[in-house]
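Researcher: We're teaching a course module on how sequence relates to structure. For the next exercise, students receive a sequence and then see the predicted structure as tokens, so they can try to spot secondary structure elements on their own. Here is the exercise chain.
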Amino acid sequence: MAVTKELTRLDKSNVKLSITVPKDEVRAKYQGMLKEYSKSLQLPGFRKGHVPQEVLERKFAEALRGEAMGRIIEDALQDYFKDEKLPRNERPLPYATPELQEEPKFDLESDLQFSVVYDVLPEIKVDKWKGLTIEYPYAEVGKEEIDKELQDIRDRNSVVMDKDESAKVAKGDVVTVDYSILDENGEEQPNLSRKDFAFTLGSGTNFYQFDDDIIGMKKGETKEINKKFANDFFEASLAGQTRKIKVSLTSLKEKKLPDLDDDLAQDVDEKFKTLDDLKNSIKERLEKNLEWRLRDKKVNELLKNIMESTPVVLPESMVRAEVESRVRKLARYYNTDPNMLMQMMATGEGHEEREKEWRETAVKALHSRLIIETLMEEQNIEVTDADLEQELEKIAKENNVEIEEVRKNYDEQNMFYLKEDIRERRLIDIMLAENTLKQGKKENYLDFMTDKV
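Model: And here is the predicted structure for the students to work with:
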């Protein structure tokens, strides 16, 4: 389609695209549509496919012109956006539909002029990313961390047995309870109730955190617990509230842990002959995980510094989409409906503060992502087919499977993600090499690995 186009940049990463479609194109599109309808419509007094075009115009002029204008606008936009040479910061974001500005005037004797406004990828200029001095926190793998892993292994290999009828709940026991959150009137709330909820005391899997409150209970007992919920509690309707939780203990079991010896090591994997073999393997794995986490910490501190000198204006649609994506991930983790979770987050005491925190997290993530993508483009980081093949071989070796099995899991989309991952890793290598990184404060290993520092 022969059209003229003009792009105007607005604030907040918006653009205005103005397009002019020549009147000859307008007439041709309109006549083509009339011909299409005259062959397919059936009106009283005319055979199907033999309705004169002038009759159609007389009866449906306004509707026909409206549809023709819609088709012309849609075709013109599609032609513009499908151009592979179109820069990324001129394309609409996938979650930002172009909005028509004012109703265009449709006249077969005049050019059709219209404008749309839409959000685009923000323009960002990354200048200060080399020669920086960054301090990063660190941690080390010690006896405490290895002992914790060994205790987890014992726990996974434990035997669960019923406790005596007269026994009381103790930390580490496996309990099954029926619970319900009571409202202000002491009535059970069906949407905040659950039956046959099993968990291990102290494991952290009881989101309502009444583990310590039921210590000392016996099987068959019921107890009402006063609970003060934190302002950032995941269940928005309870955040900042003090409520009673009615808990009935229906089952009480204890774990019999295996001895920490060579037999346990051999039960874990036949490649371990002694307990020391198992300990060495644990230490090696923890240190490898720590190495990757340490790299992430260095990158995060470096990006934090770069962001301070690299301003960016993010469109609202981009921030909103990032927040919604994070909510969906959280909903999958808790196995709940994302729409319900969004609604819960937007209501209740403290919801404004929660929304603010989520937005701030989303903005930081998008800001750092834009810096990474911009630098990957500027550094011309490319990944060849040979690079991809080498990465697939590495994945196969690490997982002890044939490479053909790995290839089955990498369709076109997954190969694209793998390619981008390799590009990003290469950029990170460059960034770390171009800056001075100093070891800072030593942190607790668990806090370090779980983002609490």
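Model: If you want an answer key for the exercise: The first strand starts at residue 4 and ends at 9. The chain is about 45% helix and 20% strand.
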